[in-house]
Design brief:
Distance between the termini: 154 Å
Structural class: mainly alpha
Largest sheet: 2 strands, antiparallel
Shape: globular
Mean pLDDT: 79
Number of strands: 2
């Protein structure tokens, strides 16, 4: 009887005691839940990676600088002609026909290349008109009263013209190879992206400024002198065709 009562008492007590199996199961459940919850937080890593990968895209959107010797020029889409120099008072930026309106960067650079190169040729032509007509030359010797400049080429011997034109061709070939994309490697009549219009690396006297502000000022002066020279050379050519007189002769010298 006592044994039966003791057994019943122990059984009743065991009913209220924590079960090792349930505890283990609960712990296992907690561990499983924590593992699952940990696994659920893992996908957050790709989100961080994707946000980090988006950073270079923003950096790539910044226009690349163009080297000008030791200087660098950065195109600015908010300014006319992407910020290229050449606008000066009183007209400022002068494009009444809108040639550069909504034009892409390479197109604007090609227009500027044409302008600055024609300006340089016109400056040499203006001096050429005066020197070839009014000073001793290889062809005419010390006689300064000779043919007007417009009619001199047919009178110049081929032995003088050949090296002259050969030198021009060599200079043009070097200029094209530096600034222009080779035919077959890209669209025709396209400047290199790393090329700054007019920058041929020719500065034997070291006159190029060391900061962009002074460089822009110097190039604006060059452009303005070139623009004036283009008008002057055209005027000299027309004047000689009209009256057949040399430039200084027409002025009374």
């Amino acid at each position: 009887m006592k044994l039966a009562i003791l057994s019943a008492t122990i059984g009743a007590a065991c009913a209220f005691s924590p079960s090792v199996t349930s505890s283990t199961s609960t712990a296992s459940s907690h561990l499983r839940m924590s593992t699952e919850s940990t696994d659920e937080t893992v996908p957050a890593t790709p989100l961080e990676t994707s946000s980090e990968e988006a950073i270079p895209e923003v950096q790539d959107a910044t226009p690349a600088g163009v080297a000008i010797g030791s200087l660098s020029w950065f195109p600015d889409e908010s300014k006319p002609c992407y910020g290229l120099p050449g606008a000066s008072a009183p007209l400022g930026f002068f494009d009444p026909l809108g040639f550069t309106k909504d034009m892409e960067l390479l197109g604007v650079k090609r227009f500027r290349e044409a302008e600055i190169m024609h300006g340089r040729v016109a400056m040499m032509a203006t001096l050429g008109y005066l020197i070839s007509e009014s000073t001793p030359t290889i062809t005419y010797g010390m006689n300064v009263h000779h043919t007007i400049a417009n009619n001199q080429i047919p009178e110049v011997p081929g032995t003088v013209l050949f090296p002259f034109f050969l030198a021009i061709n060599i200079c043009e070939a070097l200029r094209a190879s530096k600034g222009w994309v080779e035919p077959g490697l890209g669209p025709l009549f396209t400047l290199r992206e790393s090329y700054y219009p007019g920058d041929l690396g020719f500065d034997p006297l070291g006159l190029r400024p060391t900061n962009m502000k002074d460089f822009d000022n110097m190039q604006t002066k060059e452009l303005n002198n070139g623009r004036l020279a283009m008008l002057a050379a055209a005027g000299m050519c027309v004047q000689e065709q009209i009256n057949g007189k040399g430039i200084l002769e027409n002025l009374g010298f």
